[in-house]
Amino acid sequence: MDDPTIFDGAKLRLQIKQSRQGADPVAIERDFPGLEARLEDSASNSPRHGTYRTATISHRAGAAALGDSVLFLDWHGDGCGYQRHDYTATPTV
Q1: Model confidence pLDDT, tens digit, residues 21-58
Q2: How far is residue 26's CA from residue 30's CA, in Å, rounded to a whole number?
């Protein structure tokens, strides 16, 4: 069962960055739409389970690489469009 009254859109952006002093430049990034349906998915007799697994991205980034992600949510009917939610990068790539 989908509940289309939660989001107008949702996507995840995965990034591979080069670790540098200061801001880490993005070496490659890829958007994964389709997250909206997974977040809104539920069974009629159970709570939302909303699991989501992305495909992989790859890039020869070397030893100083970081994996990062950004969640973009567009809440239904709020008129604000996509709002960005950043997460801390991880050195495990």
Answers
A1: 888 888 899 998 877 777 776 555 656 555 667 777 87
A2: 11
> What are the DSSP calls for 7-34, one per residue?
EEEEEEEEEEEE--SSSPPEEEEEEE--
Give the pair of three-digit tokens for residue 84.
């960005």
Picking from 27, 30, 32, 31, the residue whose alpha carbon sits closest to that of residue 66 is 27
Who's near 91: CB < 8 A, 6+ residues apart? 19, 65, 66, 67
Phi, psi of 48 (to 5 degrees): -65, 135
pLDDT value for 83:
95
